Amino acid sequence: MEPTNWNEEKINEIKGEILSALEQVIDPELNIDIVNLGLIYGVEIAEDKHCVIKLTLTTMGCPLVDTITDDIMKAMQTIPEISSTEVKLVWYPAWDTSKMSRYARIALGVR
């Protein structure tokens, strides 16, 4: 349930701000941000201005999950409209290189 005093345009604007903030979160192994890598599967804003970020990782056993989650939490503190954040790790659909942006593919040499 989205905040009742926000219209769809405002919600989309805030989601855009969130994605911009998340572009500052860099995957330490690949040195590309998590948005361009295609690791963000969803951003939801609840009635109480609580944000849920659905995140996947390139591999299930990724040892950097805590680092990336901490960096997401720090980035979210820059969004004044959001009062709290939760990161939900999801594994479906499985991540693959087709989820990367053109920028990430070029930077990593993926065709």
TrEMBL record:
Domain MIP18 family-like span(s) in chain numbering: 17-88
Recorded coiled-coil stretches: none
Lineage: superkingdom: Bacteria
Pfam family, one: FeS_assembly_P
Cross-referenced PANTHER family: FE-S PROTEIN MATURATION AUXILIARY FACTOR YITW
Record-given protein name: Metal-sulfur cluster biosynthetic enzyme
